Amino acid sequence: MKYKVLVGTALITLLTGCANQNPSTTWNESLIKAKAPVRMIKDNSFPDKKGVRYIENWAGVKGKSILNERYINMLYADIEKKCGYGKEQFIEAYIVQHTNNPTGNIIEEVWLFNDSKSLRDDKISGLTVYLEYDKKTDFTKGEIFGNCHTGKGMSFTFSD
């Protein structure tokens, strides 16, 4: 539900936004704020030279999770309970941010899974795994963002 509200808000912002701003920037600001597992990128394979198309892509860059085995197993268990898939269906991680600052650490990754219920053609679903460690309290808060069964990717086309 949160994702549908995000899509509606972002679409209105995109259509009524600043003419000087890159449309994907406006859209991505909303996606980043919602910790969505996708971002909008320019589709360089779009054949129309008088227009531009933006498509969904997984957030971050391919990489290896820096989480220890304890946290990984806890997250797999939570994801399996919530979505019906887990460690056995895991494909790869995309690193959005690994930040170490004076007050604590932030780990944000997108984990991809084989998912027969995904609406994407490739039957892959992605979730954002977000952990925030507070050095003052010595507590790690973890959350999972995104729909269990990723929908068909959105695209926007703008023409002159």
TrEMBL record:
PROSITE patterns reported in the protein's UniProt record: PROKAR_LIPOPROTEIN
Protein's name according to its UniProt entry: Lipoprotein
Organism: Arcobacter suis CECT 7833
Keywords: Signal
Tree of life domain: Bacteria
Signal peptide positions (record): 1-21
